[in-house]
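Need tokens for this chain, all 163 residues.
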Amino acid sequence: MQTQAVLVKQLSEQLRRKQWRVSTAESCTGGLIAAAITELAGSSDVFECGFVTYSNKAKQKQLGVPASLLIEHGAVSEPVALAMAKGAAVNAAADVSVAVTGIAGPGGGSEAKPVGTVWIAWYCQGRISAQRFIFAGERHQVRQATVVQALRGLLAQIDETED
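Here are the structure tokens for all 163 residues:
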């Protein structure tokens, strides 16, 4: 299994090769993805910025997530994750972005959205996709699993583009 540091190194190499920049939009991870990417020396060559949008108000104001999506689907949903990813890319003028919104716990879950539910969305050169995950464990484990999966997804999205 690839470690977070290995994933970040691979991501940085791919972004450099394509001369692309990445941005992040984070709710449940509170900036951990941005921190992971910027842990690598030289990350200023590929990292544009990170948005930590924990509240619905912040999602609307910083990323342009429509209030109607938040009301209709809730913050932890595919439509909101997609809007966050697009907003992060557009507002940062980045080539790729990743957005995460979820319930890290220990509280806040429901039958429909149990603790550990996380939506991750990726934006890559106009293409956008999202996937739902249900991670097991305590808050720290859910957040760390989210970071790793977000990085894996970024790598996969970039791999799918043509050089």
